[in-house]
Amino acid sequence: MHSDSEAILLQKGSKSKDLWGFNIYPDLPKTERLEFDSLINIRSGENLSMNIKDKKIRQDITDIVNELIIDEE
Question: Is pLDDT of 44 > 90?
Fold first, then answer.
């Protein structure tokens, strides 16, 4: 679960503001493989939704995931 991973990363020194939850469906096409919803994304005054609203953060996540997942085409 996102919250379990978040707790481990916080214990290891990560900052909450740098952690975002999302789901990856690697078998789907690039345009459909990411879902940016997670309870850990709700932050007072910063992100008031389960969904990651910041377009730059969403793009950064997308770029990293697309570099790590090799598509079989």
Answer: no
